[in-house]
C-alpha cells in the first residue's frame, strides 16, 4: 500500500515538474513540428530520464545531493546556458518558408541523439535539480523510506514526466496538419528566441 501511494505521488510530481512551459517544452514542440511525433517523444524521453536521475538522487540522499549541486551550480549554469544558446542558433530556420521535414520518419540514430541532447540539457539545469530536492524534502519523501517505496516513487516520477511529454508531442502532431503552413516557421523562430532568452537568463543566474 505504501509503495502504491509513493508511486502515485511520484506520478503527480513528474507531471507537475514537466508541465510548465520552459525551454524543454518549447524544444519539444519545435521538434514535433519539424520532425514528427517520434522526435518530440525522443526529446521527452531524455527529460524523463533526467527527472528519474534527479528523483533517485533526491530520494536517496537529498541533503548531500543539494550540497554538491550548490558547489557546482556555476559551471552547470554556464554549460546549460551555452547549450541553450547553441540550440537557439542552430534551430533558427533558414529562408522564409517552413521546411516540411516531418514527412520523413526520423532515423533511430537521430532519435537517440535527440534523447541524449535533451538529457544533457536537462541535467545541467541547477534550478530543476534544487526543485526536486526541495519538493522531496517538503513532502517528506527524502531518504529513510523503504527501498520498495523509494523505487516506486522514482518510477512514478519517470512515468509521470514521460506521460506529459507523450501527451504534448501527440497533441502537437495531431494539430500539425490543421495549422497554417507558416505556423511551423514562426514556431521555430519564436522557439529559438525563447531558448536564447532562457540561455541568457541561465548565464545571469549562474553569475549573480
Key descriptive features of the protein:
single chain, 208 residues, 8 helices, 81% helix
Structure description:
The protein is 81% helix and 0% strand. It has helices spanning 2-18, 23-35, 37-71, 73-91, 108-123, 126-138, 147-176, 183-207. Residues 98-104 have low confidence and may be disordered. It is mostly helical.
Classify the secondary structure makeup into a structural class: mainly alpha
Order of helices and strands: HHHHHHHH
Number of strand elements: 0
Shape: globular
Overall mean pLDDT stands at: 76
* Major sheet characteristics: none
Distance between the termini: 45 Å
Approximately how much beta-strand content do the residues carry?
under 5%
Helix content percent band:
over 70%
Which spans have pLDDT < 50 for at least 5 consecutive residues? 98-104
What's this entry about, in short?
With 208 residues, this protein is mostly helical. Helices cover 81% and strands 0% of the residues. The protein contains eight helices and no strands.
Strand and helix layout:
Layout: H1 2-18, H2 23-35, H3 37-71, H4 73-91, H5 108-123, H6 126-138, H7 147-176, H8 183-207
Amino acid at each position: 500500500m505504501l509503495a502504491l501511494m509513493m508511486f502515485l505521488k511520484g506520478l503527480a510530481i513528474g507531471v507537475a515538474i514537466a508541465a510548465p512551459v520552459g525551454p524543454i517544452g518549447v524544444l519539444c514542440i519545435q521538434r514535433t513540428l519539424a520532425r514528427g511525433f517520434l522526435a518530440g517523444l525522443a526529446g521527452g524521453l531524455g527529460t524523463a530520464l533526467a527527472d528519474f536521475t534527479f528523483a533517485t538522487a533526491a530520494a536517496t540522499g537529498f541533503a548531500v545531493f543539494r550540497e554538491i549541486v550548490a558547489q557546482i551550480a556555476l559551471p552547470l549554469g554556464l554549460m546549460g546556458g551555452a547549450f541553450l544558446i547553441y540550440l537557439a542558433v542552430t534551430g533558427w530556420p533558414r529562408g522564409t518558408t517552413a521546411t516540411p521535414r516531418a514527412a520523413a520518419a526520423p532515423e533511430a540514430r537521430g532519435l537517440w541523439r535527440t534523447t541524449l541532447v535533451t538529457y544533457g540539457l536537462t541535467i545541467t539545469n541547477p534550478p530543476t535539480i534544487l526543485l526536486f530536492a526541495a519538493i522531496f524534502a517538503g513532502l517528506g519523501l527524502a531518504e529513510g523510506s523503504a527501498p520498495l517505496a523509494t523505487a516506486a516513487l522514482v518510477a512514478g516520477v519517470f512515468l509521470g514526466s514521460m506521460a506529459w511529454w507523450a501527451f504534448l508531442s501527440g497533441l502537437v502532431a495531431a494539430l500539425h496538419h490543421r495549422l497554417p503552413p507558416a505556423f511551423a516557421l514562426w514556431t521555430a523562430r519564436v522557439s529559438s528566441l525563447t531558448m536564447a532568452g532562457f540561455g541568457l537568463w541561465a548565464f545571469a543566474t549562474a553569475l549573480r
